[in-house]
Amino acid sequence: MSAPLEILPVTGPITGEIRPPGSKSITNRALIIAAQAAGTSRLTGVLDSQDTRVMLESLKRLGWSVEQDLATATVVLSGGTGRPTASKADLWLENSGTSIRFLTALCTRGSGTYRLDGNARMRERPLEDLVAGLNQLGASVRTELNNACPPVIVEAAGLAGGSASVRGGTSSQYLSALLMAAPGATGEVVLEVSGDLVSEPYVVMTLRVMEEFGVSVDSPRSGLFNIRPQAYQAREYAIEPDASAASYFFAVAAATGGSVTVRGLSRDSLQGDVGFVDALVQMGCRADWSHDQITLHGGPLRGIEIDMNAISDTAQTLAAIAPLAEGPTSIRNVAHMRHKETDRVSALATELRRLGQGVEEFPDGLRIEPAPLRPAQIATYDDHRMAMSFAVLGLRTPGLFIEHPECTGKTYPRFFEDLNRLCRR
Description:
Blueprint (H helix, E strand, L loop, with lengths): L4 E3 L7 E4 L5 H12 L1 E2 L1 E5 L5 H12 L3 E5 L4 E5 L9 E5 L4 H11 L3 E7 L10 H9 L4 E3 L8 E6 L4 E6 L4 H10 L7 E6 L5 H13 L5 E4 L2 E4 L4 E2 L2 E3 L4 H14 L2 E5 L12 H7 L3 E4 L3 E5 L7 E3 L7 H7 L7 E4 L11 H11 L3 E5 L2 E5 L6 E3 L5 H11 L5 E3 L12 H9 L2
Parallel strand pairs: 2-17, 3-15, 4-16, 7-8, 11-12, 20-21, 24-25
Antiparallel strand pairs: 1-25, 4-6, 5-6, 8-10, 9-10, 12-14, 13-14, 17-19, 18-19, 21-23, 22-23
Helix pairs in contact: 1-2, 1-3, 1-6, 2-3, 3-5, 4-5, 5-6, 7-11, 9-11
């Protein structure tokens, strides 16, 4: 592991523009769907990161033909039969929750035995709701250690269909995984969400990408989805820049009182995380929206109380700049963040206290009371978002070091290069 990285404070407002790399969330959805499509798809704007590399490698192990051109951020994928052709595969997913959940559902469409596993943290991340949902649809899926966490074993013989209920309170990725595999079932699939659905914009994203590849889903009411057997159609598909990654650059403008333009995103983005801009506007910033870019103008920040359930991947970004605001900030309804790469609520509370902040932790969030910032070495818990969020605060805090900065490779390998390019022009 590399040495802690010191973040050097800036001397004034940051002004500039940037285009983040492709969305991880859209990239992995598009790969799963293109793999099931009749014909050959060409995906552009594909993110190159640890999470997408394990996805691509797994698809190859399952028998798909995949050609990637890193220079042009392009992947050409031949869907073939739309099902895994390998009769046996061991898939290693590191700590990519998106990949293991989506691939587990995809593997049920094959014929054979598949084992999916990951690192130590992955083995702590629950899969029971997905396993239960797939088994209700006629699959044979179990966790190897009978503890509801990976490794997971799929004894595949196709997906029959039927009805399944999935709890909505832990992760929307379970529902997305079921939705993307459902069109390949022998019979109609009916999925019903029990309880409130967290991160609902990600399910909307899933449905929109499915639609782009020719599959329709009937939703007669909220939380109910009917999917008839249908075939995805191959196509050329452009992937948007990552809106979660863009949050760090919008936060740069907010933290420094500057003005930063993110190219390639708009109010109509597939990604709900563009809503982070609205959160910053509540804190005192100003935003300009256009059809292909968003500009955030910083201003004096004030603390807010905010429900971030729908945009929880940006909650760490907001928490990291909350010490710069006048008055306390409360982030609520994000209990599901405790089941991410780390317990993100607890990790935020620990590191903000290390910086001298007053923090009250709740089961579903935290309250941050600004206090004078002090130098600190920030633990990142092998969580890319901890590293990137607190790096923004380091622009205003002398003596802030980020431990294990290489963890950003999970979704944004060149983050620190891009941050330096924007701030040190």
